[in-house]
Amino acid sequence: MLRHKDNTILSEINVFFTTNEKAMHTIFKIIGSLTFSGNRFLGNDMGNNIYKDRDKLVLLLPFPFFGIKDAYHYGKSSLYGILSCGKDVFYRLLNDGDIDWRSINYGVARKLIKEARDRAQAPTGEDAPRCLIVDDTDLAKTGRRIELIGRIYSHVSHSSLLASKGLFMAYHDGKSQFALDFSLHGEKGKNRKRPYGLTVAQGKRRYAKERAAGSQGLKRRREYFSTKIEGMIAMLRKAIGQGARFDYLPVDSWFTCHELVRFIKTRRIGCHLLGMIKMGITKYGYEGESRSAKQILDLLRRTKRTKRSRATGLYYGEAIVDFKGIRVKLFFSKTSKRGKWHGLLTTDLDLSFERAYKIYSTRWAVEVYFKESKQHLGLGKCESRDFDAQIAHTSLCMVRYNVLSVAKRFEGYETMGELFREANADALELTISQRVWLILLELVAKLVEILEVDPEMLMEKLIAENEELMKLINLRPYMQAG
Length: 482
Prior knowledge:
This protein is of the alpha+beta class. It is built from 17 helices and 12 strands. The longest helix has 25 residues.
């Protein structure tokens, strides 16, 4: 019989493991350090006096480590023998629209980040700034009756998918990455006859659920219809309110806009934006005239104010400009004399090009998060019709990832996959930012020049689809550039 103590549940599960199974003991030790008892963000357990919400939450967290795909398969798992409860016990929790999953995520993340900081042997230093990273990913589905499901355009596969867009925010301290927040979004599209890529009949066949005014489920549902820019700023505002402090916000060109620049500049926590820009028609004030990024670059080139960086091997130029009343710095860079120029914007007017380029490489850590969470933790694999269950499932994936992130950092595991498979390696521990920096310097510069492609899309596609590249990222020793 399950007893209503988090540590009792974990101790019973721990019976499965022998003393030499280091990975699982580490994972359960960390889960055991989290306090869910009396969590005010969970439901009130009305109508279910046997299994409390906190107990069900603790039970759900280890599912992937036991090969349990979802609550439906729990009854056939090895855990069922000692913790005998039906699938509906879990579904009641997952479908509960009153649970504040966002606050639960933040509570767990804050505790784990503090633990990582307290256990760190030395400060990370200037070369490892704290970063908040925001990016989106495709969460493909197969069920056409899932609540709010629609079609989106995938910039990775360049095709239309039955899916939702997951907008995620992560915190990177220079050594470890922690998932902080997310929102799910749809793409209505321009075809009024097929909103969200569906016919009227297809839209009506989707699952629908009434939610109480003011419920957490209704708030998350409304996020689905907001733009990703609105979702990103709302998450940034929440993160700062929750005490998150960061030095830089690296984002790709899709997110870099005046609204975000203004938001970051008006914060009082000393943070800066570092975002790619499109070499388009957007105007900046420079040397007394309104010019596009390309026009500013042409002026820099004509006046011989571009040069080559020894540290990165890139050609670059920089200019401080006025962006609708806000002073920002623009960097322009290319991989070779014949390469294509790309732009980078920052609100940090004192930032050097080499440091900006290295900090921006941290953005690719979130792509690694997407890759590892989808591969090992089932991110996006939930096929429940209930949107509340989609939110719950994604939240649980984030908590699991953060637990693994702490375990990996302090137990010497080289890769998340290695930790997941309980394999303890003796090789040198490599940090995500160092590995990504190596790839950017040695691989992307060459491929961009040879293939004549956009570096943003190239990195996203490589990390998402190329297993050999993942091995390179995880196994190659770090070498300092220059």
